[in-house]
């Protein structure tokens, strides 16, 4: 078996029914994992799972509903298997000038990306730590490294993810659970299309930074997640891996 194989592993991907999460799910499933995809829309999740195959199992849950998360992890364990992999991918985007961004806008973004991802990690990690084995991947973003206007809440959340990854890695890696993040640049998903729509100047600027022509595909991030979750990365933890066509290395 190749060290990149995820045979006999159970994964959870939040926001797995669309965009980047769906691409990550396709890659994890191709690598051999059973993948539970979550999100808030049951029907969309069912359609996404059916399009890939029986190794993808839809189970709706809202990551901002902390009380629902421990029972959700129990259900995954009972019906599919104890989770070996968690991908904290679910996210929302609020694009507004800083002075127009309300507390509600700001907090809703932090709640989904940070509090929700942390709460699900808290519900999932104990089983992994007990078994001394597991891999958790967060999704940060290039906005954690670059000053981009109009995304104060989002950039704060994605920067917070980096602190979370390093802290959790320091706590969990000595016990066999690796914590890493991917930092996607501009990946062609509905969220990206919404973020650049009607803002051709922003799109032009973004495209100008990328060294490899064009936006990335969800699978470009998905294969990096497969690597981070596999035996091939058994000595890799606390890492924030940019997947951005060279965007962060550009001027
Ligand atoms: P998307 O809108 O297609 O996906 C977001 C997913 O999260 C959706 O499936 C949505 O249903 C789910 N979600 C939102 N709130 C949720 C909640 N409370 N509970 C459960 N699920 C919830 O957008 P995407 O571009 O695929 O984004 C996926 C992740 O990648 C996000 O964390 C985003 O910030 C990050 N990201 C995207 C890009 C990009 O260029 N597309 C770049 C960097 C980072």
From TrEMBL:
InterPro entries from the UniProt entry: KR_dom, NAD(P)-bd_dom_sf, Sc_DH/Rdtase_CS, SDR, SDR_fam
SUPFAM superfamilies per the UniProt record, alphabetical: NAD(P)-binding Rossmann-fold domains
PROSITE patterns noted in UniProt: ADH_SHORT
Regions crossing the membrane: none
A family per Pfam: adh_short_C2
Superkingdom of the organism of origin: Bacteria
Gene Ontology BP terms: monocarboxylic acid metabolic process
Domain Ketoreductase: start-end pairs: 9-189
Similarity field: Belongs to the short-chain dehydrogenases/reductases (SDR) family.
Descriptive protein name: Gluconate 5-dehydrogenase
